[in-house]
TrEMBL record, chains A, B:
Protein name stated in the entry: FAD-binding oxidoreductase
Family named by the database record: Belongs to the FAD-binding oxidoreductase/transferase type 4 family.
Organism field: Massilia niabensis
Domain FAD-binding PCMH-type: 36-217
InterPro entries reported for this sequence: FAD-bd_oxidored_4_C (IPR004113), FAD-bd_PCMH (IPR016166), FAD-bd_PCMH-like_sf (IPR036318), FAD-bd_PCMH_sub1 (IPR016167), FAD-bd_PCMH_sub2 (IPR016169), FAD-linked_Oxase-like_C (IPR016164), FAD-oxidored/transferase_4 (IPR051264), Oxid_FAD_bind_N (IPR006094)
PROSITE patterns per UniProt: FAD_PCMH
Any matching Pfam family: FAD-oxidase_C
Keywords on record: FAD, Flavoprotein
Domain of life: Bacteria
Length: 469, 469
């Protein structure tokens, strides 16, 4: 399709950077898990912030909706266009530079299209740590991480992406550039606009650059796997380890026995740390700014207390980086083992940590009543109160057929989450996938404030329409 | 004044809790430093959130402006009414209860009028730490701390008040109650409204309750005072200590020689750690989740490296809690020594840490040129990039007379702050005092977004008018 609007976009970014034919656009239109393919009027690939601003102004003038896109690794359809074909996709992938590392201020300035792993590497090359880490880090962009307030495996110690961001540059829905690229630990000069754009999933403007916090690299980390007989024990062990290790406890992941059996079945080459079977396992990581011996000593002293106090049944402490890596691989292969077993019904929920054991018991029971024999694959970042609570079919039922129960199962799980004061989206966001859930569960006072803010900042409603609200 | 509106308020909260005569209202109308006294139509003292909501609805109906008030310890006139006498003061001081401590989730639920020190005590009684700590902690309320995003002495390790808050209850400018009292570490379900109310200084609604994060109590802390010959060396020492101590470095405060001499002059009973005179001093605190020996060992190993590398000239490491306390007293008496010396011109600024040495040199030189002989009292939370950069008169000039230069000196200091990419309000906020400065220095794109949000959430403009915007 060649129209006047597309011509205007070409005059801004140059003809090669406006894709308007189907084969060229295709890679930008399908979501990461391959569940949905939308349509677009064009795909725009600006080279810098000024081009983004001019494109947005052109879209505003022509009332063309804009879907901002980073690495397209989101799990809730937040970065792909709908089926109408009215929107343009604005991809930040050409704006992928690391602009500056400031080792004394411990900050890094990056463009929004920078790949997470390249930011980690740039920090590492400066002898520092950018702690955000998640499965898609080789593909996802920091603009997407910020727009979805991504979580990952380092939240317990370093917080979500929100807590790692000091400053932003944003192109507003009018096509203005807001230079909020501050590199300050303290700044109380008005409303928290930075916080508002983080997690807004591109519905309030387009993040084009960011200043991020860096940390000293720990000298060493070590890992243990601890066997316990219940989620309640896992919660007690978490408290104990936090008291013993303080900020040195950098990860605390929960896995049920079913998760470990699934991994063992599909990936038999991975370590099987225990001969006996136990109900629950916790993967613990302790990092030290001093030495490997210090990390091991801290970890062992916590685990010894847990074994003596009867909290833990058995434990394996990694004695090398290779052993640590092996234990992490078990954790990281749960999702892959699930995928190998067939499709299942996924939930990304969070709860007050103190209510997790009751949540699991109650929700397991409700599901067993409604779908006798269904299998719960429950694991997650227990230290953050974040569970991936997934449901697979009963023995002998085809996975595809079981997906017909998705809505009923979502309702059972999310009703239970809300009853236990939890969140129906811990780290993945709302996107297009959970818009109806948000309407169902969110306090109307809160929804109305969100709508008022959306209308105030994006009065034409052109920024990522149909997402979140 | 008895009018229909005041009668309506009495019917909501009971007659004793609406103050309308001058002597009863007086304690609510003057700011903490005694620089300004406003007027009010009445002072309202609700007992609970429902009463707050009904009062706000009554104010909205009658178009009466509302000044929310906590402990009234703010430094920028944010919590006192203007001189018009049109507004009511709505004090949260009766809503001062600690509602619940959840030791497993490591959270505490409090009403907005709870005194900071009482929250610290409640955490401590549960064997946990609420880390927010600042000079006014015996009087200030958590609602005020949240509304101003207070800083204090624990920011380096635990962040600002923003980072310590998980959930809020807010009465909106329409008199609705938003129940956002979530106790979750992860929640990506829409816009960051919590973040927006934190630091909004009561201009978007009234915080009535909050869920706050608690931490394990460190087993021990220890302190050192290190002498150096320049701010640049103090920055290098900060990097070194962060690398050696990681998250165990819990405070890093800078003081110039002039500050120490001022304290020694006005408080001769306090410790004078060094016989010789040095240009700059850093007060370091290291906390350990293990033992006092561990804290001392970490601190000493960092300081030894600094002495060997020529970064530091001399150092005193506290060998007891009493010695630590003595060193902190020197730091905490700088403001008192200044007050004893007479009024001076204060600035609460922040900068990228890497630019602080250049900022100090440049600003000192500009002031010396404009006001030869004037004395800079520069100290602050260097680890957060936050300086209290105050200016006192030259020898022989009366302090009161020198205040006539306030505007010119503010301009020199704040122009320099902005030139070095800093903030004109690091931890105190804008209030009524810095509204003109904000207009002068803030990006118009940012100011316009702030105004749009204010108009969207408070269309009648009744919440704390004249503050921030």
């Amino acid at each position: 399709m060649t129209d006047e609007f597309v011509g205007r976009c070409r005059s801004i970014v140059g003809a090669p950077w406006v894709l308007a034919d189907a084969p060229a656009m295709a890679p930008y239109l399908t979501d990461w898990r391959g569940r949905f393919t939308g349509r677009a009027r064009a795909v725009l690939l600006p080279a810098d912030t000024q081009e983004v601003a001019q494109l947005v102004a052109a879209c505003a003038a022509a009332r063309v909706p804009i879907v901002p896109q980073g690495g397209r690794t989101g799990l809730v359809l937040g970065s792909v266009p709908d089926a109408s074909g009215e929107a343009v996709v604005l991809s930040l992938r050409r704006m992928n530079r690391i602009l500056e590392v400031d080792p004394t201020n411990r900050t890094i300035l990056v463009q929004a299209g920078a790949i997470l792993q390249e930011i980690q590497d740039a920090a590492s090359n400066a002898g520092l740590l950018f702690p955000l880490s998640l499965a898609a880090e080789g593909s996802c962009t920091i603009g997407g991480n910020l727009s979805t307030n991504a979580g990952g495996t380092a939240v317990l110690r370093y917080g979500n992406t929100r807590e790692l961001c000091l400053g932003l540059e944003v192109v507003t829905p009018r096509g203005e550039v807001w230079d909020g690229l501050r590199a300050l630990r303290k700044d109380n000069t008005g409303y928290a606009l930075r916080e508002l754009f983080v997690g807004a999933e591109g519905t309030l403007g387009i993040i084009t650059a960011a200043v991020l916090k860096l940390y000293p690299q720990p000298k060493a980390s070590t890992t243990a796997l601890v066997a316990m007989d219940s989620p309640a024990r896992a919660l007690s062990l978490l408290s104990l380890m936090q008291d013993v290790c303080g900020p040195s406890l950098t990860a605390y992941e929960l896995m049920s026995d079913f998760c470990l059996r699934l991994v063992a079945h599909h990936f038999p080459h991975l370590p099987r740390p225990f001969a006996a079977t136990h109900a629950q396992y916790a993967l613990l990581e302790v990092s030290s700014s001093e030495s490997e011996e210090h990390a091991i000593r801290l970890l062992e002293s916590g685990i010894e207390a847990a074994l003596e106090g009867g909290l833990a049944i058995d434990a394996v402490v990694a004695m090398s980086t290779a052993q640590s890596g092996g234990l992490w691989q078990v954790r990281e292969h749960i999702s892959l083992a699930q995928a190998a077993a067939g499709k299942n019904i996924k939930h990304d929920v969070s709860l007050p940590i103190s209510r997790i054991a009751d949540f699991i018991a109650t929700t397991d029971a409700r599901l067993a009543e409604a779908f006798p024999g269904c299998q719960v694959v429950c694991f997650g970042h227990l230290g953050d109160g974040n569970l991936h609570y997934n449901v697979a079919p009963m023995e002998g039922v085809a996975h595809e057929a079981f997906l017909a129960n998705q809505e009923a199962i979502n309702r059972i799980v999310h009703d239970s989450v809300v009853a236990f004061d939890g969140s129906i989206s811990a780290e993945h966001g709302i996107g297009a996938l959970k818009v109806d859930d948000l309407k169902r569960y969110k306090d109307p006072v809160e929804l109305n404030m969100m709508r008022a803010i959306k209308a105030a900042l994006d009065p034409l409603g052109i920024m990522n329409p149909g997402k979140i609200l």
